[in-house]
Structures are given as C-alpha cells and as structure tokens.
C-alpha cells in the first residue's frame, strides 16, 4: 500500500512537471516572438535611438512597478486566476498595436504589456516554488530553462518568419493567440499539482500599507534580503552583457554584426543547458560550494570579457558566464522557495520578481552611463571584483539558511549537513 502511494505521488509529480514545462514553453514562446516583432516594428516605424531605448526599457519598468502588488493579488485570488487575467489583457493589448502605427503608441502598448507580465510570471513562479520541495531542488532551473528556450532560442526564429509571412498586423494577431493559448490550458496544468496547489486567501487585504509591509520583509529577513541582492547583481551582469557585448565586439574587436550577435546566442544556449543540467550538483555540493563556484565562474568570465585585444576570450567568457549565471539562478530560486515556506510563496515570488528587472535596469542604464566614462569593456572588470568578493560571502549565506522541521529531509542534502 505504501509502495502504491509512493508510485502515485511520483506519477503526480511527473504529470505536474511535464504539464508545467509545456505551459512555461508556450508562455516563453509568445514573449520571445513579441520581443523581436516589436523591435522590428519599431525599426519600420523609423524610431530614433532614444525611442528604441524606451521600447526596450518600458516593459521592464512595468514589471518592476507591479511585481510586488501582483504578489499580494496572487495570494488573495490564486495564481490560476491571475495568470488567466494577465494573459487575456496582454493579448488584448497586442491586438491593438497595428491599429495606430506610431512609435509612441508602440511604446505605450509595450508599457501596458509590461504591467500584465507580472500576473503571468509571478503566478508561474509561485506555483513552481510551491512544488520545489516535492519535485526536488535538482529541477529548480527547469522552469526558467524551459521559459528561456521559448523566449530566447525558438521565439526569435519564428518571429522573423511570421513577419515575412503575415506582415506586422498578422504577426501581432499570432502573438495575441500565443498569449491566449496558455491561458486555456493553465488551469489544467495548475490542477496537476494536487494537494500542493496554492490556495487563494480571500481575507488578504490589498492596500498601499500592505504593499509597504511587503517591502519590510527585505529588512527583517536576512536570507530574503541577501538572496535578492545576489539576484539583482546577477541580472545586472546578464543585462549588461546582453546589451553591450555586441557593441564591444563590433567597435573594439571589429566583429561583424552577425558574429557579434552569435556571442549572445552562445551565452543564452549555455545558460539554458546549464539550467537543466547543473541542478543535480546543488544536492551534492551544498549551498555554500554551489554559490562559491557560481561566483567564481562569473568572476572568471568577467575577467575574460574585460580583457582587451584578445577576441578568443570573448567566446570563452560568454560560455563561462552562461554557466555561472545559471548556477546562481538555480540556488537563488531554491533559497527563495525556502523563504516562501515561512513567509508565503506569493509574497516572496512578488519580491523576487522585482529583483530581476531592477538588476536589468541597473545593468543597462547605470552600467551604460559608467561605461561611457570608463569604457564599456572595463565594466566587466568591476563585475569581476564584485563576484570575486562574494566568494567569501557564501559562508554567511550558508549560516543564515534555515529550514522548518518538515523541510529538513529535502534540504539536508542542500545544506550539506
């Protein structure tokens, strides 16, 4: 009887992971296609460099502003309802984009879509965090890896084909459909979680004071605060690399546009592969060593990327950076899930959703501003110093990691106890 119960639990976990990965892949595919189509549409509308920068930035601003409030709404109404609403509203906005072919209307629509994205991302994050204890920390990167496959690898390839075959109007109709499709089977994917589903808490009050109290969690919970800062730093490096490595490769090394862009593709491919493959090392090594290796890899990659006049180091640095960033995402996600067990998954998911966009804006805007004065490539050397210093900080991260009695069985391996 016990064996049958274990088998049923294992089958339930498999169904959840399979259904959730299909949902994440479809969701990421729509976002990836929309990103490229929007960039191409901005070029067709003859957007200036400043306007192109706004198109790239306003979606992150929307996510940053609403990540925390959406976490509260997910806790109040449940992730399924918020995911469906966010998908429907984003699809509606994308349908209207071709109606007014002006750059500033495109910027407005992109910002509005950014306000819808947290409803989808925080909902998915919350559900996956809730199940991490049962499916295992080795799969901590699978959600982000699957999402990135659709967003980074498959989506851009399909985007160009859609524009060539259907024009921009037709492409935006396809995008709207791809946003609605996950909303149709999201309830089924969420329901596969069984007893581990996140239950709505209707008594939760939504107000500015409640949102402000959410921010105080960062002040009072050391694990949450430090993990969020590491998430912010890693996203800053990823954003800076993704935006400026092409500029560096073309201007400083004489790469063609195609070869320069392949650096980003290489880093993204390594990042995705590592998200699926390196999670098993977390249970073997423990949090401290896993953090230290991740920090060391990013420091080494930053030195390689910051070294002038050696083109081969750009390729080496891209590979090592993708590996290090993936490892940090896996261990950070595990840490956030542990904190969520104590403070509430939706609350922690909303806070973690803020760290990524904040880091992205920090890396692209502040990094670009400093790079203007100190040199774009030299900024990687600053990153190397930062992450090399964090290697010794990993000891403190291990010490503040806590687990309740019910979590000891799963997390004992992670803590190396």
UniProtKB/TrEMBL annotation:
Membrane topology: Multi-pass membrane protein
Residue spans crossing the bilayer: 16-42, 54-74, 81-97, 103-122, 142-165, 171-192, 229-250, 262-283, 290-307, 313-336, 348-370, 376-394
Residues in Major facilitator superfamily (MFS) profile domain copies: 5-407
Subcellular location: Cell membrane
Domain of life of the organism encoding this protein: Bacteria
Broad class of where this protein is predominantly found: membrane
Keywords of the record: Cell membrane, Membrane, Transmembrane, Transmembrane helix, Transport
InterPro entries xrefs: MFS, MFS_dom, MFS_trans_sf, MFS_Transporters
PROSITE patterns, sorted: MFS
Protein name as catalogued: MFS transporter
Organism: Acinetobacter corruptisaponis
């Amino acid at each position: 009887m016990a064996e049958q119960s274990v088998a049923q639990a294992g089958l339930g976990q498999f169904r959840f992971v399979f259904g959730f990965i299909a949902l994440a892949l479809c969701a990421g595919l729509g976002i990836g296609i929309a990103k490229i189509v929007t960039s191409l549409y901005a070029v067709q509308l003859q957007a200036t460099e400043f306007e192109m920068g706004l198109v790239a930035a306003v979606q992150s601003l929307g996510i940053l502003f609403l990540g925390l409030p959406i976490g509260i709404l997910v806790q109040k109404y449940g992730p399924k309802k918020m995911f469906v609403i966010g998908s429907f509203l984003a699809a509606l906005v994308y349908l209207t984009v071709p109606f007014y072919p002006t750059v500033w209307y495109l910027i407005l629509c992109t910002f509005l879509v950014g306000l819808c994205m947290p409803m989808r991302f925080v909902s998915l994050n919350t559900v996956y965090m809730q199940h991490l204890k049962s499916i295992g920390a080795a799969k901590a990167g699978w959600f982000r890896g699957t999402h990135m496959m659709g967003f980074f690898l498959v989506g851009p390839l399909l985007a160009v084909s859609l524009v060539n075959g259907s024009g921009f109007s037709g492409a935006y109709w396809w995008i709207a459909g791809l946003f609605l499709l996950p909303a149709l089977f999201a309830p089924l994917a969420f329901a596969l979680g069984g007893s581990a589903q996140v239950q709505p808490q209707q008594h939760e009050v939504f107000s500015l004071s409640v949102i402000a109290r959410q921010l105080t969690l960062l002040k009072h919970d050391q694990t949450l605060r430090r993990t969020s800062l590491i998430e912010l730093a890693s996203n800053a490096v990823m954003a800076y690399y993704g935006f400026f490595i092409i500029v560096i490769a073309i201007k400083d090394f004489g790469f063609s546009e195609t070869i320069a862009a392949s650096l980003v593709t290489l880093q993204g491919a390594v990042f995705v592969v590592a998200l699926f493959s390196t999670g098993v090392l977390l249970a073997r090594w423990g949090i401290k060593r896993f953090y230290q290796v991740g920090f060391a890899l990013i420091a080494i990659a930053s030195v390689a990327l910051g070294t002038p006049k050696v083109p081969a180091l750009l390729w080496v640095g891209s590979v090592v950076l993708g590996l290090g960033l993936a490892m940090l995402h896996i261990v950070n996600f595990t840490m956030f899930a542990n904190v969520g067990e104590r403070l509430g998954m939706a609350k922690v998911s909303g806070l973690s959703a803020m760290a990524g966009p904040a880091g992205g804006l920090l890396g692209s805007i502040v990094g670009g501003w400093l790079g203007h004065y100190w040199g774009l490539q030299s900024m990687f050397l600053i990153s190397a110093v930062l992450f090399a210093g964090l290697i010794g900080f990993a000891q403190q991260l291990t010490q503040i990691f806590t687990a309740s009695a019910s979590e000891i069985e799963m997390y004992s391996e992670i803590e190396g106890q």
